[in-house]
Predict the structure.
Amino acid sequence: MIIEFIFTFIIASSLISIAPGPDNIFVLTQSALYGRKSGVIVTFGLCTGLIVHTIAVALGVAAIFQASSLAFNILKFVGAAYLVYLAWQAFTAQPLDLHTSNGSSFSTKELYFRGIIMNITNPKVSIFFLAFLPQFTNPQEGNLVVQFFILGLIFIGVALVIFCGVAVLAGSLGSWLTSSPKNQVYLNRVAGAVFSVLALKLVTSTVSV
């Protein structure tokens, strides 16, 4: 693959990862609520989901979502339902006793799978990859499937670095904001509102990129 294409791809991936979107907003809210470690774990879950989308695009599965409105709608409603569930959890969460608790009431496994589910149930990610990755491939430079995997892994690496940075910054802020039960309730309500908005945005999304 041409090195100039890879360099351009890294810049584009960085800008896309930095721009406010469902994934980095999700990392930010989880880090602010439960600490930077929780945000980093969620980030690894999100990036694991990106591996699934990369495989789907490389093997052409994502084209199904672009061609079939039924498949797209089923997955997006599943994703929206999960976000509504997260919103309900946030709205009904009780303040933690920070003197006896380490922060998150969720286990590492729960946070990790929360990130995975959040990512893979958003069909827009697969369609975005389907539209974005081919722009940086060239059939004359080798096997396209291999090129898709390389680009996908680069994008995941960039997203991992940026999202972990968001988690660390938001976690530092969250450790101060969650110093009292009242602030925790406020943050949970903000997180619930964010999840609700993301669910609404996903439900009203269309197949077009």
Remarks:
- The first helix runs from residue 3 to 18.
- The CA atoms of residues 15 and 105 lie 33 Å apart.
- Residues 24-94+102-203 form one domain.
